[in-house]
Each structure stands twice: as structure tokens, then as C-alpha cells.
Amino acid sequence: MTVRILSTSPLVGESLQELGRDFPELLIASFRSPQWNAALPLAEALVVMLSEPLSESDLDNAIHLKAIATYSVGVNHLPLEACHRRGIRIVNTPGVLTEATADIALALLLAVTRRITEGEALVRSGSWTGWAPDQLLGTGLTGKTCGILGSGAIGKAFAKRVWALGMRPLFWDREARDGTLDFGPGVAPRAPLKDLLNASAVLSLHCPLTPTTQGLLDRDALLELPKGSVVINTARGGILDESAAMDLLESGHLGGVGLDVYTGEPHLDPRWLNTPRAVLLPHLGSATTETRAAMAKLLCEGIATVFRTAQDTPRC
Ligand code: DGY
Prior knowledge:
The protein is globular, with a radius of gyration of 22 Å. With 316 residues, the protein is α/β, with parallel strands linked by helices. The chain has helices spanning 15-22, 34-39, 56-61, 80-86, 98-113, 116-125, 153-164, 193-199, 219-223, 242-251, 289-312, and strands spanning 5-7, 26-28, 45-48, 67-70, 89-91, 145-149, 168-172, 180-182, 187-189, 202-205, 229-233, 254-259, 278-280. It contains eleven helices and 13 strands. It has a six-stranded parallel sheet with strand order 7-6-10-11-12-13, sandwiched between helices. β4 (67-70), α4 (80-86) and β5 (89-91) form a beta-alpha-beta unit. It folds into two domains: 5-94 and 290-309, 3-Layer(aba) Sandwich (Rossmann fold), CATH 3.40.50; 98-124 and 137-280, Rossmann fold. (2R)-2,3-dihydroxypropanoic acid (DGY) binds next to loops. (2R)-2,3-dihydroxypropanoic acid is lined by residues 50, 72-74, 97, 101, 283, 285-286.
């Protein structure tokens, strides 16, 4: 068997197939299937999903590996340091999923604050008896502060969206920079984390999961938010302590929670399933046809570049 590219998925669109025309030794096999395990020692490039964590012992087996391409912008499921030491290139998909992910964060924010899923369930139940003055009252956003954790492309794209709703974006990032941040249509202040939490009616997470952000939003941090605040997480489970968020939702300290990502996903603490004011999505951040096709294209271009570069400078 000859394998250069070992992918766990055909990806969306034609890009992987096209790459396979240039580099025909392409195998698509499910993650950790017997076929995948057998091909790992032969592979020069792996394509994995964000739900398929690799370890350093995989690298020990993958003796010909030149690149790991992940069909995601997040790289927290990869042994980054070990790859760096071994000269294995990481290819990911920054840029192309910025707008789609900011859109899903906005969708969650509106769904939580305007009680969209509760309203839809009421209509579908057939038990809606008609308009009422106090029916499913939500929370307005105009004029309120939106704390944004992360000042990268997705954080800025989300700021643009909430700014259009009349909110005031406020940024914090891992480097704890101060000053202001130009997010396109406007300029927003940066603040220390505690100040940002104290001021935020909405808190939205847009930073990667790293040792710095792991557990960043624990119970104490969430208690710094004003009563009734809404928390949105489209970044990664592990940044937000979901159990603390649920307790604080139940106690009324938080007014709503919108989640697209979870610690240990797809397994959820069953308490989430019955928690009112929580809107739960199955990690849909980048899930548009256009975005997933663009991610595949970027990934395949990255792999081709690694192969071409490696031809010039063989790994030793
Ligand atoms: C990614 O690609 O890392 C995002 O989580 C997609 O939603």
C-alpha cells in the first residue's frame, strides 16, 4: 500500500479529490479504523477533523509525516509542540470561517435574548393561544456593552455585528493589551478582564483554547458579570466552566447561555438538556457549504505547498 495523504473525510467540495489527482496516493479512512491505523506509518500528510485528537505517540508511528492538516481553525486537538520539534507542519483554516462563525455567535445571541427556540417550540406544540402582552419577553441589546474575549478576526467580525445592533463592543485578549481596537466600522476599547466582565451585558468568547484560556471563565469570573448577563461560546469548550455556567443560570445570576461548543463534546452534561434559557447548537460555527468548501481548498493548497517545499528541502 502506498499512501501519501491519509484523510478521515472526503471534506466538502472537490478540493481533496483534485489534490488526489496531483498526489494519487490518497486514502480516506475513518479515524482510528484498522485501515487508518495501518496507513499511519506510511502517511506524509494527515487530514483530521477538530473532533479527532492526535497524540505524540501517533507521531512516533507516523515516521514519514511532513504535515498535519486540520479541517478547522482551532488546533488545540493537536500535539503542537511535538510537531514543532519534529519539523511537522500544521495546516489549518484561518480566515475563511471568520464570517460564518461570527454569524453563528450572533444567531445564538439573538436566539437566547429573544427566546427564539422557546417561541418556535410553542408554535410547533400547537398550544399557542395567541399574542399576549407578556408572552416570552426577551431582553433588548441596543445600548448595552458586549464583552468580547479575543481580538482576532472572529472577535472583530462579531464586534461588527453587535455594533450594527447598537451595542458597545469591549475587547480583552490573551496578551491583555490596552488601548483601543479598530474592528472596521468602529473603534472599541480594550479592558482588563475583570473590568470587561463587570461591564458586560453580553459576553462572547472568540479566543482559542490554550493553556492561558483553559478554565478562564470559571465560577468566580462568571460571578463578575452583572446579574442577568448572557454568555455565548462559539470558541471552544474548556474555556468556559459549563457546570458553573449552568449553576449560575439556574440561580438567575446569568440570564441566558448560548453554546455551540462543549467540554468533551459531543457528550453533554444532561442537565443542559432541560435548562431553560440555554440555546444549544452542535458545533455549527463553520457549517455553511461555502465555508466548508473554502476550508477544504485552503487545506489542500497547504498540503500541496508542504509537499512541494519538502521536495526542495527533505526532512532529516
Ligand atoms: C474551528 O474550525 O475551529 C471552529 O471551531 C469551527 O466552528
